[in-house]
Write a structure and sequence with these properties.
By secondary structure, this protein is of the alpha/beta class. About 50% of the residues lie in helices and about 20% in strands. The protein has ten helices and twelve strands.
């Protein structure tokens, strides 16, 4: 007799070896499973036995996953469906969303991630709120809003940036000439020279900030040429620590790098773009935690991926703001201290390199931004 407190799972995949292995691994983790190698067999099982969650492969001969999903939802609307595929594409995601799947995972799927998704789907079937994240539909809607903003921004970014850069160059050149003139002893009294120097410092600071904004516009408008080579992520993390150690010391923040024992941290990627992302994350962490804090770059790896986590012990991110941190122009920094483009640009870079950014937020106890990167750039 089945336990009503645990999900009853049906696995559907035409790859028999994968299906058998996944079933055994789930059973070992206490998740009871049934199996089918095609859509019609899956529907027959659903007609005869109680099932809470179907884990369904998209690419199958004959009745594919989308068609099977449509029949499942017509005949068993309360059964939740998690789609699996090794060929993730947005068109398939939209089609599956139209028929009401719960979420969408890409092969090779991590077992812990799949179990967590099964449990979320089971809780929704049981009428409980889904804990630990949104369903695919909610995430997709949020991404579509951001994508629409980025598309509009991309159309204007290049022309705006060039239009801004031209007067900035004139202002910077003129400010430099004035600074040279004001430094001469015969220009006027010390008080006047001091006032002029202060005003020029403000002008140069504003020019620098405007130049950074225009550069970030250009990053949205065009992808930089990748300079891919084999690198050691641990060495890159140490380099970022060395580049930020003075900033950290000035803020009374400790910064350190830790490496997993004997871990192979090599990968093929663009070190310049990864350095830019890590510098942004470390600088953000230093600014967020304040005096007496600590920032750690923890580097680890497994046969398929390498990871570097930027961990701080600051106040964390307010939960109500967490979903917005990757939105363009959203910032929690004081006015004049940030453009709100750093995290949006960083995520774009990491995704272009075939990786992802994960966020573990601990309100009141710190935050972790984790870069997960493939060994070889796609």
């Amino acid at each position: 007799m089945s336990d009503p407190t645990h999900p009853r799972v049906l696995l559907v995949d035409d790859e028999v070896d994968f299906l058998t292995s996944l079933s055994q691994r789930l059973e070992l983790r206490g998740v009871p499973t049934l199996s089918a190698t095609n859509g019609p067999d899956a529907l027959e099982i659903l007609d005869q036995k109680p099932v809470d969650v179907v884990v369904l492969d998209v690419r199958m001969p004959g009745m594919d996953g989308i068609e099977a999903l449509r029949h499942i939802k017509e005949r068993h609307p309360r059964v939740e469906v998690v789609m699996l595929t090794g060929h993730a594409d947005l068109d398939t995601a939209f089609e599956g969303m139209r028929f009401g799947f719960f979420d969408y995972l890409t092969k090779p799927v991590q077992l812990g991630q799949l179990i967590a998704k099964i449990e979320e789907a089971f809780r929704r079937r049981q009428g409980e709120a889904v804990a630990g994240g949104e369903t695919f539909t909610g995430k997709l809607q949020q991404h579509m809003i951001v994508a629409d903003r980025l598309a509009s921004l991309g159309e204007l970014a290049a022309s705006i940036a060039h239009e801004i850069n031209n007067p900035l160059a004139v202002i910077a050149e003129s400010a430099g000439w004035l600074r040279t003139r004001a430094s001469r002893a015969d220009v006027g009294p010390d008080e006047l020279r001091g006032s002029v120097a202060l005003a020029l410092s403000k002008i140069e600071s504003a020019v620098d900030r405007a130049a950074r904004i225009s550069q970030n516009f250009l990053r949205f408008a065009r992808a930089p040429d990748a300079r891919v080579r084999e690198i050691d992520l641990g060495e890159l993390a140490s380099e970022v620590r060395d580049l930020t150690v003075r900033t950290a010391a000035h803020a009374d923040v400790e910064i350190a790098v830790t490496r997993a024992d004997d871990a192979d941290l090599s990968l093929t990627s663009d070190p310049y773009q990864l350095r830019q992302v890590l510098l942004n994350l470390v600088t953000n962490a230093i600014q967020a935690i304040g005096a007496g804090g600590r920032v750690e770059l923890a580097v680890a790896g497994d046969p398929e991926e390498v990871r570097v986590a930027v961990i701080d012990n600051g106040p964390g991110i307010p939960p109500e703001l967490l979903e917005r941190i990757f939105e363009p122009f959203f910032t929690t920094k004081p006015e004049g201290s940030g453009t709100g483009l750093g995290l949006a640009v960083s995520r774009g870079i990491v995704e272009k390199l075939g990786g992802r950014i994960e966020v573990d937020n601990r309100p009141g106890a710190g935050c972790t931004f984790r870069l997960v990167l493939p060994r070889a750039r796609p």
